[in-house]
Sequence to fold (144 residues):
Amino acid sequence: MTARQRKLLILGVALIAFGAIKAGLIFWYLNHNPAAQAAQRLSCDPSRGSCALPGGGGLRFDSAPEHGKPFVVRLRDAAGAAPPTADFTMPDMDMGFNRYTFVRDGADWKATVTLPMCVSGSRAWLVEVRHGKDAYQLPFQVVR
Fold:
């Protein structure tokens, strides 16, 4: 076996070993990474008053939500180290990425949200609030 053939053999074995290690790490990650908890759907409309959350606390909008105009979302009594987030989506419509992170406002949390206008004229939205291991999804309607 020549020196060139020996180098190619070593390179081939190294590539096969690298591929096996990579496949093993991907397999481990996919089987050991806990899946995000599915959001619990609630029937309360936060634009009509405070919605009690099963994990404690409540969610409310300070004013009626409108497309293109900022409004404040408040989350009461949400304990935890990491700030909660709110994802706004439309059923059966891609409205882009609309995630807001709450900031402390005294003992509670608040987020200032501006929703994009839907070209179809739909006013139906869903807000998914995540805080720690808890996740809640609440439907609501915008004013205009």
Q: What stands out?
A: The CA atoms of residues 25 and 31 lie 10 Å apart. The chain has one helix and ten strands. The longest strand covers residues 124-131.
